[in-house]
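Moderator note: this is an archived Q&A kept for reference. The question asked for a predicted structure of one protein chain; the sequence and the answer are reproduced below.
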Amino acid sequence: MQQHTITRRKYSVTFIIIGVILLAIGIGLGIGSPILNLEKVIFDLPWLITGIGFIFGIYGVYQLIRSDSLGDVSITRKSLKAFLTNNAIILALLALVVVICIIEPRFMQIRVLLDILTMSSTKLIIALGICFTLLIAGTDLSAGRMVGLAAVVSCSMLQTADYGNRFYPDLPQVPLFIPIVLAIIACMLFGVLNGYLVAKFDMHPFIATLAVQVIIYGACSLYFDLPPNNSQPIGGIRPDFSALGQTKLFEKFSILIPIALVITAIIWFILNKTVFGKNVYAIGGNREAAVVSGVNVFNTIMGIFILASLLYGIGGVLEAARTAGATNQYGMGYELDAIAACVVGGVSLNGGVGKVGGIISGVLIFTVIQYGLQFINISPMWQQVIKGIIIAVAVAIDMSKYNKK
């Protein structure tokens, strides 16, 4: 098998050159489009190209800085095949984006990109929670119902004083953080239950979280049905609460985007730089070996489900703030989208494999598909078909890699 080796420095410089070329093209188009009256044809494409060029350039500089420690780059037929296999979904997504842009050029707008990032923010937080359970070859079917529970609990205590159908008519205007903390704690209590069933009784996470899912939905529905609300959608949300999900930074960026970025950075640190994170990967990779190595499996599994429920609670609160309301049906199916995003992003169902960067890409892939297909008026039924095909292909690729190993 032929092998071609290039130095890391040459590899880095190649990306830097591509980045500079894209920057030049983007800036040139940006300057020329008003002169040539192309603004309504290419919209914000120049600045999107500029952004991509900037990313390429930064990646090249990063590779150049680490060139001494990373070593040379070997290119073989096997490595190229592995690259195409591992990134098949992303390459297909890029092709889909190009097709959508051709069909509807308005898709090439920065506003569209910001909308996609906003929609992805809470989904990413929930997916980061569920990835912990997948990393130990488990799952969490209760995630969506915890999102709904957090939304209902927080909204029920954060209505304006003059709203006609208040959940608690005599409740004074409490500080904002109290209902939010209570909503998250409610989710974490069920996270403790999930963890205890799995860790103490060695119950399969699928069964344990399915049981807890039903309990949460029943409890949330009972709470939602309390008089005088009687199962009416909760509205009249206080402006200071809705601001958590609706505030625009610099009049363009949703506040949800930096919140999601901060939480993502924290989760990355936990998974990559802490003993707890290394224990999560160890249990997922080989539970028996982890036990022999001295890993406290009970405490780690409990920590996994508690941390996951904390993230679901935060996601539910932010979703409620974004939409300024809640019902007991809130969050239904969120766990399936989160699991699918993780799998598409490279988190193995067999445990022990998965990165935060992959989860980000998985969430973005599904959001782009959903938003893009809606943008060109594709039937919601066809959207479900396409989403199902992507999930099946991603799992098939994951299983084929595992079987080869």
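Archived answer notes: The chain has two domains: 1-74, 102-404.
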